[in-house]
């Protein structure tokens, strides 16, 4: 380490090695500065001012926004710095109604822990008087605006990682708040329910909606038989809630805890993950051989499915019709167990334990049930199950290891690795190759931690071009490339959450990639210790096909294991006619005047287009209509001329396109193909 490539922090010399800000250098020096709005996977925001440090010659600066430079002399614990941090904590505590003892985040709240760490025992400032209403519209989340501290973590994650952008800052000054557009509830806009806003929220402003009381009510009802299915990702994380480090036996302890809570039977969702591969791989091979719709997108992630229904209804036929493992389990359980146990379907309660908040909205889909009785009755997250275990006083790390019930407790390693991003793809490769995945040269490439990776797998069905993405923004990019003909992949695995299900919003809250890596290792270790690793080696799945389902993708399998999707696009129809075009077909012109495009000048653009057409005597050549959404809100204003989409459109771009059409381009129906002008 040289002076030319180092700085001093509290008198100690620390090297600079590519860190993007001073905060990262300070952390490298084993000093954990308090932060509130900083998240290593998001853009730097610099709002909370808790990471203030004193730099010689510059005074007080925010460490997260300061570029490290050689020779800087930094002090992290001066009286001025410490006093400022405490004052900022007071201001945050006074920014809303932080009733810590009754808050759902109590014990894991970052504001609470920082106040304790910094010795803040009183608040000198008055809290707002007027309470704001709770947002209870989402099946999986509760939003409490009164607890929001405007850190912006949810806004940036929703926009930058998920590419959804349903949360934004509204109003100004003391009235500022984070909210969906027009004060709507989360489920009244295009929220996909992934819950990552709750995962990054450092306080109790967005929480997982609890269904614990519903489960307790079912367990206490003597007329009900209550069974649980446990997703593979749960076993990788629940021990974190109890300080348990013996991950090898965690699943056995989960079974033991559930039985002590009163569940009649406990099964493993890995069973239906194996079943999913039988169906999905068969579906893919059938499509590939028959020239069906490709690429085939996976359907395991309900947040991804909902995003596609909102933003890309044109690709819904490309999404596998297979239900997710959760829903396959519910369907099979309610088909098999009532007959086996001699009870009515309505008296069987299926409880899912999932790492995911989107699974709550998935279970409520109308098509995933029979005559109003859902296949899955209640979804608990890992957090909720841990809370039930704690409430019951069960000493989780001390529990004996118990066995799963059969036959739905049988699994292979292929089903277990569904928990990780790339796991579904690896399971498909194992199924297609017909031998252990570890022997396949493509596996390590699948196991990369990159948020997007592509590979070509050699299988008995020929070479398959595959892609794996996690984070919906990356999925959105890939879909657009496929639609533009820039990608030729045939199979695409999509997971909404970082790292896949192991990083789901229902898991114990973490902001550390190292924690996700540890969870991944747990899943890989479970896979390694099992005797069987390929889906077709699950004898219980084989017997299910022989006894009840018939052939994969057959009629009975389709009835119980497959589903359908529907467009959730907000605007349908042709739009609002603004020209007087009559007679022969005219060149269609569509101008988006939705909120995002309006704010970027769409209204003035529309007026300019109408004036141009009238001035040039072209009214009889063009049919001009206003519409409200072309699903390109981040790149408006958006205009479509004769099937060609112009994004970030200017009048000059539109004029040139109109002139070209007027000069000889024949009128045509609106096309789904897009010629994009970035």
Please specify the SSE layout and strand pairing.
Layout: E1 6-9, E2 12-15, H1 22-28, E3 52-55, E4 59-62, E5 73-75, H2 79-93, H3 110-117, E6 141-143, H4 153-161, E7 168-170, E8 177-179, H5 196-200, E9 206-208, H6 212-219, E10 225-230, H7 250-261, E11 265-268, H8 270-290, E12 296-297, H9 302-311, H10 325-341, E13 348-354, H11 358-363, E14 369-370, E15 373-374, E16 378-381, H12 382-391, H13 413-416, H14 423-433, H15 443-446, E17 452-459, E18 462-470, H16 472-483, E19 491-495, H17 513-529, H18 539-549, H19 555-561, E20 576-577, E21 587-592, H20 595-599, H21 602-615, E22 622-627, E23 638-641, E24 644-647, H22 651-662
Supply the key terms.
five-stranded mixed beta sheet, 678 residues, 24 strands, alpha/beta, Alpha-Beta Plaits, Rossmann fold, disordered C terminus, 4 domains, Ubiquitin-like (UB roll)
Describe it for me?
By secondary structure, the chain is of the alpha/beta class. It contains 22 helices and 24 strands. It has a 5-stranded mixed sheet, with helices on both faces. Helix 8 crosses helix 10 and helix 8 crosses helix 14.
Summed up:
The chain is an alpha/beta fold and 678 residues long. It has 22 helices and 24 strands. Strand 3 and strand 4 form a beta hairpin.
Q: Going across the major beta sheet, what is the strand order?
A: 2-1-5-3-4
Task: State the domain count.
Answer: 4
Look at the helices and sheets and give the structural class: alpha/beta
Task: Estimate the global geometry from the Cα principal axes.
Answer: globular
The low-confidence parts are: 666-678
- Summed over residues and divided by their number, the pLDDT gives a mean of 88
Largest sheet descriptor: 5 strands, mixed
CATH topology of the largest domain: Rossmann fold
